[in-house]
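Changelog-adjacent note: as of this version, every example in the card shows the full chain rather than a window. The one below runs 128 residues end to end.
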Amino acid sequence: MQNFLIRVLINAVALWAAAGLISGISFGDEDEWTKKVVTIVLVALLFGLVNAVIRPIAKVLSFPFIVLTLGLFTFVVNAFMLQITEWIAEPLGLAFTIDEFFWDAVMGAVIITIVSWLLSVVLPEDDD
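Full-length structure tokens:
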């Protein structure tokens, strides 16, 4: 359970960093910071669920492109996961938007990957 909470926290920080660095990714115009934090955590939970369920299927289907591009196509797959998260978040009432699919989503995926990797190295991982 602790490992799950750490992963959600890492996803939340990575999504927050991507929204802060890329103008095309946002969590709404809410003035109240508690609502924004709750939205970020809920989107992080949703993003983790999308990555757990859909990402393995997408990676298997895109394996030839991943091999052909020496792994760079993985960023496109990650951008697609980010876009799916936005599509699911909208009907749930979560204020998470990506303006342009390709560039904003790909750059967001790069930032999320880097921040998640850095935080995974720094934070302890308990597999109990």
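Structural remarks: The longest strand covers residues 25-26.
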